[in-house]
Amino acid sequence: MQEASLRHRPESEDCFVIDKTHLRLRFHTAKDDVKKVIVHYLDSYYDLKTAQTKEMEKIGSGQVADYYMTTLELPLHRCQYTFEVVGQDGSHLIYGDRGIRKYNDSNLYDYGQFFKVPYFHEIDMAKTPAWVKETVWYQIFPERFNNGDKSNDPVGTKPWNPSDHPGREDYYGGDLQGVLDKLDYLQKLGINGLYFCPIFKASSNHKYDTIDYLEIDPDFGDKTLFKKLVDEAHKRGMHVMLDAVFNHLGDQSRQWQDVVQNGRNSKYFNWFHINRLPVMPFTDPTKGEQLPPYDTFAFEKHMPKLNTANEDVQKYLLNIATYWVKEFHIDAWRLDVANEVDHHFWKKFHVELMNINPEFYIVGEVWHSSQPWLNGDEFTGVMNYPYTQQIEDHFLTDKISAQMLIQVLFDQLMLYRDCVNSGMLNMLDSHDTARLLTLADKNYDKALNALAFELVQPGSPSIYYGTEMAMTGGNDPDCRKPMDWTKEGDSYWQKVHDLIKFRRKHSTVLSQSDIKFAIKDELIVIKHGEITAYFNTSNHEVEITKKCSVSNGYRNGVLSPNGYILCE
């Protein structure tokens, strides 16, 4: 047995409370190396010789690991446990809190070998609101979705043309009235979550360089209009998520301009990370310049980084975060560049929002493994790029095989608690990436196959505006073209609509982590509760006879390349 591959971490994604009396455990082994894993468990104050035993279920495999899981019932809300591991080679071990020992009574009944969960504290549990699991989000880049009020168009606004390739400084006049006018359309599509890119006063068309977080950008409308939009969305059963940029301010903000003018005498001097004076604009340090005079987002001179360890900055940002919840009843924050803000601040942020609404949804923009933010005291979930980009690597770009895909996806799921997986925001494209259909080389079936696969994954799925209209676009800013409103109801639109409808109908099951992956007859097979889905990513037809609810490329018992079948 490969002892070095045995792994379990207490009070983590390997050991978490799921309710007042139930504890879920996971155990990691080398692939195909272990015959069985048995957990010995009991109340923290019982005699060890009264321990109960339960064989763990092998729930899946990753690239190099097998994963075992079980759920224990402890009526007194506390637990101690240790693992008995039997290898395929006949070896027999105890894996406990103080290491690995040979299996015998002396080692089994060693108090020090038992992991401890002293008490099942509900307040410490990571939680995902039930409504999040039922939501299909629609990401709106407000400046490009719909122009509902031409009176607030910026000077130089271009004609609305979905075929344009926007420049970074272009304006097309999209606004909040335009979104309000299209709520019935979004409801018809099946959307029940609106995810807005920033809407606060800023200098740019994208609004990630905030000037004033407490004002709606006049290009988009005002607070009265925004309140009406939120209220009308709520009437339709839609939740609203706003985008907050708390890592940095725009350089036209009054705080930064005060530093520019007054230097060290500015009352805002310690609001930022300033390396030297004067704080003059700079060129990209990667091109030879010395350390920039102030820290920024990336090397963007127009976005000076906030010092979120500063108490005045904390008060300022927490006031903003709670204001939009109290006054406008938004349901969620998406947090830009969340990984570059300190954990200390996010813990405060979490407490403030949960005090207002315990069902609030907090999503961080983190593009890498995110366990430090997902322990129940910071974010509900993150933008699940490490998960969904693996889907793209197989379905859209053929970088990895089907077998590797299902392995790496399961490895990703095992990084987090089950409830955290239910709260991850899944997307195949966004304002920061090339569009789905462009990644699929404009192959409609390939794009739909990937989208169908995304919509049966654990988590909360998000669709970028215009995906249903088969919009194309390369990387930013080309992915931010004006919305194409000419294709509503066509065949592609209808297939996207049907996928959203299927997802929402089965959201209770599909949002959960208990998913099974397999390869059968060259098809990727997913079993998720009562749902079974089949995906053909080969380059030829595959015979299969199934009764399906939603499909594409399936006819007379044959599934075409890039075809899928969703069965309930």
TrEMBL record:
Pfam families: Alpha-amylase, Alpha-amylase_N. InterPro entries: GH, GH13_cat_dom, Glyco_hydro_13_lg-like_dom, Ig-like_fold, Ig_E-set, O16G_dom_2. The lineage of its organism: Bacteria, Bacillati, Bacillota, Bacilli, Lactobacillales. Residues 139-503 form the Glycosyl hydrolase family 13 catalytic domain. It comes from Lactobacillus mulieris. This is Glycoside hydrolase family 13 protein. The keyword Hydrolase applies. GO terms for molecular function: hydrolase activity, hydrolyzing O-glycosyl compounds. Keywords: Glycosidase, Hydrolase. One of its GO terms (biological process) is carbohydrate metabolic process. The keyword Transit peptide does not apply. It comes from the Bacteria.
